[in-house]
Design brief:
165 residues, mainly alpha, Four Helix Bundle (Hemerythrin (Met), subunit A), 5 helices
Length: 165
Amino acid sequence: MKKMLFFAVLLAAAAAFAQCPCHEKGGPGGPGRGPHHGDKGAHLMKMHDEMLEAIGVPESQRAAFRTAAHETHKKMLDIQYKIKEERLAMRTESEKPNPDKAKLQKSIQKIADLRREQVLLMENHKLEMLFQLTPDQRKKAIEFMQQRKRMMMERFGGPGPDDDD
């Protein structure tokens, strides 16, 4: 009984942390207080467009990339919504007097599958974009992304991810 209570409290704490307002739009402090002051997706698309312009991609091709990025962003938001729904279901189940462990494990698996779907969606989007660039543009894009990654790591401290990330 103590183990079940401990598990329920631990799961409820994890679910509460996952619903923390600092994970919403705007980052820590809520909307309008994060580093991007609003829609992160729009900020990322602007950075993406700036990179494409810097490496010499013509406006017509950048417009096509923006459209593709927008579609990918919409799919990512749909997946994120499903993840939040699953977390809420987990929270509801974990708050029951006798939570169903199988239901909770099924929710965990669904979230893991959705996260995998997100990673595949983003990586395939990057891959498609890179293959539409000329070899010279592709080389410049990779250098640009590596430079941005180094700048971000210096800004926020720490060694950062490996170069193959």
